[in-house]
TrEMBL record:
Residues annotated as domain PBP: 38-284
Protein name: Phosphate-binding protein
Stored InterPro entries: PBP_domain, Phos-bd, Phosphate_ABC_transporter
Organism of origin: Planococcus koreensis
Signal peptide: 1-21
Keywords for the protein's UniProt record, in alphabetical order: Cell membrane, Lipoprotein, Membrane, Palmitate, Phosphate transport, Signal, Transport
Molecular function terms from GO: phosphate ion binding
Database matches in Gene3D superfamilies: Periplasmic binding protein-like II
Function: Part of the ABC transporter complex PstSACB involved in phosphate import. Involved in the system for phosphate transport across the cytoplasmic membrane.
Region named Disordered: 27-49
Amino acid sequence: MRIWKYAMASTILGSALVLGACGGGNATEPGEEPSGEAGQATGSVTGDGSSTVAPILEALVEEYAGVEPDVQVTVGTSGTGGGFEKFVQGETDFSNASRPIKEEEIASLEEAGIDYTEFLLAYDGLTVVVSQENDWVEDLSVEDLKKLWIEDGTTKKWSDINPEWPDEEVVFYSPGTDSGTYDYFNEVILEEEDLVSSATLSEDDNTLVQGVQGDKNAIGFFGYAYYVANKDTLKAVTIGGVEPNNETIESGEYAPLSRPLFTYAKNESMTDNEAAYNFMQYTIENAGEMADAVGYVAAPEEEYEKDMEELEALKK
């Protein structure tokens, strides 16, 4: 296992995690190159999609470069919806998603003649955060979240939730509308109602992190790994008394904000592009370890075994 520093999702404050990542399948000491057969594949692979999934993929890409230096892997972060748009256009070999693919996206792929396979990468707990300077909010219920985040034509103040809290306007930071995180929050919290119109929206989770860090009246939400990388300056709000952590996310106790993370592979790329197949194979083999390393929760081993069987079936 190789030890390396990975600047979590390019966080501007420079928060870094020291990760233990599998390189080439054999253990190595710090500073050594991964052992095993390297350089067997050549070519290029392109992916796009969820910024929530990006920390896992970016870490995998960096490790993979040490195993297959002649394969160029590019991964964009235009959001789950934006990634599927590129997938439909045939621009990418895989598309990362922080929610399951939608019916209309399935229909668009069918119309475009693109067959795909869904692979489960990890689990995430969508994390609601405030600044550490906020000394009044510790816990919110789902109903509190609805009252805060649903647009109802009023100016939202903290005292609306609890009269003992400040009579100050709440400042909102949310993922953008192309984000699977936005879609998930909209479904399970807002129940398809409009998000508060005063919210600052961004597909870049680091923008949300910085916004909440800089304002004691701010509240935001994003993937758990972004909280883990910035927990010295952010405070995770418990939901119904349940804290987001590896145990509560994996067990589902952190409901309704626990969710799966996926990548969708283009079947034709897996059969016709040896580099794409090789990288996806490496991704499935190492996704669990990388998920744990960057702050998400690995899926059960049998899920990765199922993923691998489905990938291998594409080559038969």
